[in-house]
């Protein structure tokens, strides 16, 4: 199981979620820690080494490096906010 490293943005987003959605998202994060390359993970175009997975109405952008799973961004998936926030973080 990989060590989890959640960004400040991801932690802040999780704090504001209702309990049901918090549970759903955290279950997916824990699944990613066990299996960082699930079948539903998609590599992000234009951002090398980052992947995304969808869970309900949310999207998780992450990368894996040296036995650590780094959750960079968690946002709603109905717009491109995930990608804008991630690009800002990487600049």
What topology emerges from the helices and strands here?
Layout: E1 3-6, H1 8-15, H2 19-34, E2 42-43, E3 51-55, E4 58-65, E5 68-76, H3 81-90
Parallel strand pairs: 1-5
Antiparallel strand pairs: 2-3, 3-4, 4-5
Explain briefly what this protein structure is.
The chain has 91 residues and is of the alpha+beta class.
Order of helices and strands: EHHEEEEH
* Name of the CATH class: Alpha Beta
Under CATH, the topology can be stated as YaeB-like fold
CATH architecture: 2-Layer Sandwich
Q: Unreliable segments (pLDDT under 50, ≥5 consecutive)?
A: none
The CATH homologous superfamily name equals RelE-like
Strand order in space, largest sheet: 1-5-4-3-2
The total beta strand count reads 5
- Estimate the strand proportion: 25-35%
Number of spatially distinct domains: 1
Overall geometric form: globular
Helical content class: 25-40%
Describe this structure in words.
By secondary structure, the chain is of the alpha+beta class. The chain has a single domain, classed as YaeB-like fold. It is 37% helix and 31% strand. It contains three helices and five strands. The chain has helices spanning 8-15, 19-34, 81-90; strands at 3-6, 42-43, 51-55, 58-65, 68-76. Strands 1-5-4-3-2 form a five-stranded mixed β-sheet. Strand 3 and strand 4 (58-65) form a beta hairpin. The longest helix has 16 residues, at 19-34. The radius of gyration is 12 Å and the shape is globular. The protein starts with a strand and ends with a helix. The model has no long low-confidence stretch (mean pLDDT 88).
């Amino acid at each position: 199981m990989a060590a989890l490293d959640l960004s400040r943005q991801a932690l802040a987003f999780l704090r504001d979620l209702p309990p049901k959605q918090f549970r759903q998202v955290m279950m997916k994060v824990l699944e990613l820690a066990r299996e960082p390359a699930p079948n539903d993970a998609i590599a992000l175009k234009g951002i090398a080494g980052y992947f995304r997975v969808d869970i309900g109405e949310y999207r998780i952008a992450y990368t894996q490096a040296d036995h650590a799973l780094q959750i960079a961004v968690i946002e709603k998936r109905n717009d491109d906010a995930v990608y804008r926030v991630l690009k800002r973080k990487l600049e």
